[in-house]
Amino acid sequence: MNELGELADAFLKACARHKILSATAESCTGGLIIAALTDIPGSSSMVDRGFITYSNEAKMEMLGVSAATLDAHGAVSRETAVEMAAGALARSHAGIALAVTGIAGPDGGSPEKPVGLVWFGLARRGEALIAEKRIFENNGRDFIRRQTVRTALEMGLKALE
Fold first, then answer.
1. Could you list the residue ranges that cross the membrane (predicted)?
2. For residue 35, what are the domain limits?
3. What CATH number does the domain containing 47 carry?
4. pLDDT single digits (tens) 58-86
């Protein structure tokens, strides 16, 4: 099992210990987090669902991200990541939701929001929402997406410790 597989397995075991399901809300990873989770045999007892919300319309329709948030802050922002995580939790049976939105490149970056910028959101029932920002080195789209998956799973594990 590779590093992402080991992290996914550890995260799912933590979910099992807490007797909760997990959900994901993914933009820049396009489903890589939920894929890593569902690659683990038996994951169906710890995974509820994954939302792939690549477009702003999908973020609004599937997760309830507000148009005002997207207009004011953009899709790649702390505010959007938090609303994505909260929306995934509200629209699932999960006890924890991981959300990611970022710029994986190779284009789409700007001086304010460079390629490699990713915002992470984490929501747990009955707890405060968590947001974290990372700017990964621009070593290519695949590198940024894999680092995003790794970081999201690490955040989930930390939240369940």
1. none
2. 3-160
3. 3.90.950.20
4. 999 999 999 999 999 999 999 999 999 99
